[in-house]
Amino acid sequence: MRIVVALGGNALLQRGQALNAVNQRDNVRQAVKSLAAVHAEHELVIAHGNGPQVGLLALMDAAYESGSAFPLDVLGAESVGMIGYMIEQELGNVVPKDDHIVTLLTQIAVDANDPAFQKPTKPIGPVYSTEDGEKLAAEKGWSLAADGTGVRRVVPSPKPQRIIEIDTIRMLVDKGVIVICAGGGGIPVSFDEQGHLHGVEAVIDKDLASGLLSKQLDADAFIMLTDVPEVCVDFGTPDQRSIRRAHPDALLEMDFAAGSMGPKVLGACEFVQSTGKMAAIGRLSDLADILAGKAGTVVTLEANGIEYA
User: Fold this and answer.
1) What pTM did the predictor assign?
2) Catalytic annotation, residues
3) Short-list 152, 266, 268, 161, CA closest to 204
4) Alpha carbon separation from 178 to 26, 122, 224 (Å, rounded)
5) Cα gap 26→79, rounded to integer Å
6) What are the chain's domains?
């Protein structure tokens, strides 16, 4: 099977952890154990998020007083190069030495007129207290959104339209290479009137980008790994229930948070509707059981509406 795995931020940096290289590498070292087990039996393509990392780079960049801060597309490229390097190195330490792994910086085109540019929803950077977040927002002109008991900066998250390097990715995967690509949702770019590419100030949601990648690679399964075991309804309330399996049509009728579970659900449903294959959302440590249909939330045309755990 050809499997696209999209690593959520928890695979790189757990909630509440300090944003530093030691913590990130420790988490990557744990993540690659599950990935190596999948690679032993299947073709593996890895995508990943970069919200905390690109947010930190933006903060560091803003501290430079020259007035020439780098835009988010450049900072995104920096972050996915860093993350890809760590995944590539740690995965290479546990798979057979003759296996090939490569990180490919991936440009993904978006529509410059996407309405997302008028309504930022994608969280980046660390979680702040409400007081600290509001001070930074006033100082830097940020938009904020609630995240747990605090707030995070949010930026535009336009829908991915086209993967510029898809032919290269497909060629590498066909040759048996483990490809780490579409990191952070890809580097956001757009075409001008002359057909030339340029970067745009945004961060593409990695789950929607990974879903597009899965469709264009004709993947047999699309797995999104996060820090919760299943998709839940009435999350955080006494009525919370976990979904074990769901038909995409039924799942799309439900409401999920735009900045967190919403894009995962949408990405899973679009992949299943367009391919007839399976998608799933679950916890990294449950990856083997998710593929076996024993854990996580599986989205499939074979489900009878919403089936609760």
Assistant:
1) 0.89
2) 9-10, 122, 206, 264
3) 161
4) 21, 28, 17
5) 17
6) 2-112+160-219 (3.40.1160.10), 229-276+286-309 (no CATH)
CA nearest 50: which of 151, 185, 165, 142? 185
Residues 129, 162 contacting (CB under 8 angstroms): no
DSSP β-ladder status, 241-246 and 278-283: unpaired
Largest CA distance in the chain: 58
Whole-number pLDDT of residue 230: 93
Burial per residue of 75-92, b for 16 or more beta-carbon CB atoms within 10 angstroms, e otherwise? bbbbbbebbbebbbebbb
Q: Which two tokens stand for residue 65?
A: 């007083």
Residue 178, both tokens = 């483990």
Asked if 223 contacts 287 with a C-beta cutoff of 8 angstroms, the reply is: yes
Coil, strand or helix at 303: coil
Cβ–Cβ under 8 Å, residues 226 and 234? no
- Sorted by sequence, the CB contacts under 8 Å of residue 16 that are 6+ apart come out as 127
CA distance 186 to 213: 10
Q: Would strands 197-199 and 187-191 be described as parallel, antiparallel, or unpaired?
A: antiparallel
pLDDT digits (tens, 9 = 90+) for 109-131: 999 999 999 999 888 877 889 99
Q: What is the mean pLDDT of residues 245-260?
A: 89
H-type helices in the chain, by residue range? Answer: 21-39, 51-62, 72-92, 130-140, 166-174, 206-216, 248-251, 261-275, 287-291
Q: What is the pLDDT of residues 269-309, one digit of tens each?
A: 999 999 999 999 999 989 999 999 899 999 999 999 999 98
Distant-in-sequence, close-in-space partners of 143: CB < 8 Å, separation ≥ 6: 120, 137, 153, 154, 155
Query: To which H or E segment does residue 107 belong?
Result: strand 107-110
User: How far is 188 from 73, CA to CA, in rounded Å?
Assistant: 6
